[in-house]
């Protein structure tokens, strides 16, 4: 499992290091970018950040539901494909947000901070669950729950940093 975690982190690191090249795949005339730009509330960095917050919550819920549903299938390792696709979809939508914003660094920083804070709150929830972890019955394996929560905290931290880096710290690409 730790190998998969390292492979996922390597994938995210490659995305972050090549974000300018990858941002070229999201054009300013794409459907999602034009739709976001057409909303007047999207020009307010606080409202755009709140929308990004709820978009991240929706994507997380969708990925969690898909993860649970694929766990019920008799196909081994299919949940890994679903998680990879969820990661790619999230990163794509963050690049759409990056392309749709027409604001300065401060406003982008605010939008990225508010939007990516969903993953920071998730990290704090997992930390609370870790601190208050205790076995309910002798059959409960607290060690596996501990490792699962550590894994979830690490994934939440990586998602927070990636979302913030793409939406809050990036300048809009000038090459269209």
TrEMBL record:
Keywords: Membrane, Transmembrane, Transmembrane helix. The chain crosses the membrane at residues 46-70, 77-97, 109-131, 143-167. This is Uncharacterized protein. It comes from Pueribacillus theae.
